[in-house]
């Protein structure tokens, strides 16, 4: 409990720092590059600590490992072949890279995204948690929330911080440089990962617990950061879309948790 509270407090403090650097890019910290990395690691730490309150630690680590390994494999495939996301190129701004192909931050981002999206999905679907198809609905909703997160991530990564660039495709339309097939690939990849990771994330000895709002907190903070950064760079459509989707998900999550 103490570890979870400390990590949550550190995450919120770092969130405030990064939010400031994104909204006021002229500050010295905005050019440092490390605040975003620290925020991502704190998001991972507080997410795993929160999950460990409900599941055995070995289950948490196994689920985390499965997500990291599969996402890393898919991202490496994408970087080398442009399949399934489309043609893109990581830059040095994204941080250290394994074998000059995979940024270390990318699997961590997948873990944070999917675990918190799943937590938000559980809140939304709480009224229907006893139906037979609950698990399939949860996987689908988690994948949808992951895709919505990527809609905010792409402008943040491409236009604001230049973590990666997309090469032009034959399609005339895109989302701030990202081809539409990227979002389909995110959904498929998320479903693939969840198919393998979900068994380790199920409590085999369930007990009645109050709703866990921690995933919603992390999810909302990260999405608000993406929206604020987009607004600071006058990417109004992206900012509006992220805010609208985040508020909608939060409303449904709070409504579901009240049951």
What does this structure look like?
The chain contains eight helices and four strands. The protein has 259 residues and is mainly alpha-helical. The protein has one domain (55-257). The chain has a two-stranded antiparallel ribbon. Strand 2 (97-98) and strand 3 form a beta hairpin. Helix 1 packs parallel to helix 7, helix 4 packs across helix 8 and helix 7 packs antiparallel against helix 8. The longest helix has 27 residues, at 134-160. The chain is globular.
How do the helices and strands line up, and which of them pair or pack?
Blueprint: H1 2-23, H2 34-51, H3 57-81, E1 88-90, E2 97-98, E3 102-103, H4 105-124, H5 134-160, E4 164-166, H6 180-197, H7 214-232, H8 236-257
Antiparallel strand pairs: 1-4, 2-3
Helix pairs in contact: 1-2, 1-7, 2-4, 3-4, 3-6, 4-5, 4-7, 4-8, 5-6, 5-7, 5-8, 7-8
Q: Write the element-wise H/E pattern from the N-terminal end onward.
A: HHHEEEHHEHHH
Oligomer description = single chain
Strand content: under 5%
Quickly count the helices.
8
Taken together, the total number of domains comes to 1
Main beta-sheet annotation = 2 strands, antiparallel
Low-confidence stretches: none
As a whole number of angstroms, the C-alpha radius of gyration is 18 Å
Structural class: mainly alpha
Q: Please count the beta strands (DSSP E, at least 2 residues each).
A: 4
Distance between the termini: 25 Å
Shape: globular
Helix content: 55-70%
Residue-averaged pLDDT? 93
Order of strands side by side in the largest beta sheet? 1-4
């Amino acid at each position: 409990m103490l570890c979870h509270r400390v990590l949550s407090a550190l995450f919120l403090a770092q969130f405030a720092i990064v939010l400031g650097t994104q909204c006021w890019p002229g500050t010295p910290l905005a050019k440092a590059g490390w605040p975003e990395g620290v925020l991502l690691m704190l998001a991972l730490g507080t997410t795993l600590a929160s999950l460990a309150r409900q599941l055995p630690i070995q289950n948490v680590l196994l689920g985390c490992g499965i997500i990291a390994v599969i996402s890393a494999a898919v991202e490496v495939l994408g970087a080398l072949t442009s399949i399934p996301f489309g043609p893109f190129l990581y830059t040095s701004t994204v941080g250290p890279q394994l074998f000059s192909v995979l940024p270390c931050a990318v699997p961590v981002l997948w873990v944070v995204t999917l675990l918190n999206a799943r937590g938000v999905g559980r809140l939304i679907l709480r009224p229907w948690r006893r139906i037979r198809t609950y698990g399939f609905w949860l996987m689908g909703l988690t994948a949808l929330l992951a895709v919505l997160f990527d809609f905010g991530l792409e402008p943040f990564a491409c236009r604001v911080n230049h973590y990666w660039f997309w090469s032009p495709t034959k399609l005339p339309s895109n989302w701030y440089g990202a081809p539409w097939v990227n979002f389909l690939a995110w959904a498929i990849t998320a479903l693939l990962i969840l198919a393998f990771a979900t068994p380790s994330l199920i409590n085999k000895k369930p007990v009645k617990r109050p709703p866990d709002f921690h995933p919603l907190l992390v999810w909302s903070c990260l999405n608000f950061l993406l929206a604020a950064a987009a607004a600071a760079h006058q990417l109004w459509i992206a900012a509006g879309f992220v805010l609208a989707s985040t508020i909608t998900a939060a409303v449904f999550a709070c409504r579901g948790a009240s049951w």
